[in-house]
Fold this protein.
Amino acid sequence: MEQKNSFTQGKILKPLILFAIPVLFALFLQAMYGAVDLLIVGKFATSADVSAVSTGSQIMMTLTNLVSSFAMGTTILLGQQIGSGKRKEGGRTVGTAIVMFMIIAVIASILLVIFASQVSAVMNAPQEAFDKTVSYVRICGGGMVVIVAYNLIGCIFRGLGDSRTPLLTVAIACVCNIAGDLLFCAAMGMGTSGAAIATVLAQVISVIVSFGIIRKKELPFEIGKSDIRIHMPSMKKMAGLGAPIALQDLLVSISFLIILAIVNSMGVTASAGVGVAEKVCAFIMLISSAFMQSISAFVAQNYGAGKIDRAKKALAGGIAVSFVIGVGMFLLSFFHGNAMAGIFSFDAEVIAAAADYLKAYAIDCMLTAVFFCFIGFYNGIGMTRFVMIQGIIGAFGVRVPVSYFMSRIPDTSLFKIGLATPMSSLVQLVLCLGCYMVIMKKLKV
């Protein structure tokens, strides 16, 4: 059966962009989760609540990204199977993913509920916000099953070349989350706990509605009840592809958590400022992230079909479009950081701290616009170990040591600490370019 979402025939740049647009909107709405939490908490609660939501959401984002990164193994494998027309194997891949990720979700939920205090302590949460941070982590941790299910749905459909269904599921969750924040935080004055409850309930509703939608869709793979179990060949392939990405993203996230812990030692204002800046960064990096995911899905199908030339052209087109937009994001965040930070906070000192941090992140916009596209390409062809290696080098060879060194400078600033991020991205971009040249040389031979 010919797939209407197939990337293996016809034009390249247009379908890539059309696929990337729903991915972009889905990422935008997903970023709205933490942003809305921070916005409403910042308006109706205290700086301690803002700091708690900032630290707590960063912890949850790290774990959620870890699961999503591991699920990229499912996206890549399923995309390659769809590209090569292996419908039955695709069904086994999906069935294995469902069981495997539910087991992971249950374990993660139990651990987070039990060790919420220890995790918050490791993050060096400010004393004034410590109990609130624990509450946020414990509530969201208890809902890990639905959080994982919610993210797995998106990963599966992106592997099929369908970016609209994930957009719909995210839109449902976002609307419900906004309504929940207004109810629990604004109307009921529950602060940090209210933001956490709203997040979990929104994703519960989204997952329920999503399953109803999925049952009515015609799927490009065959799956029955007997397929919903662990199939060892599928699991080994998914783990082989997804584990390096997950490990890389985990270590990268840990590097950012280390930076946040360093900043937390500078006080509540600095902590809240970086928290606000990170929410802004979640938006200004969306274009690069959207192209990374889109190129990964596009390349996976074409690699599975043996059409590497189409994959190369998709990479080139993605880089061109992403970089142009990246320059615009640089100008916006470097020169108008105050206005952007002011959306999420009404405290002048917090806004100033966030704007200072954003000037460093602005430089990163242009670098990630290029190297994120390369990461999507390497994921799509299954070179996830290289992705892991370059990510670890960037995180622990550059970002962490540079941020620590900058924090030790007398009269340091958040701008100086933030410079560790673009310096890391520059090193990673050089590694990606070098690897690409080696691959192309081997292909010519």
In short: Residues 13-444 form one domain. The mean pLDDT is 83. The CA atoms of residues 224 and 416 lie 55 Å apart.
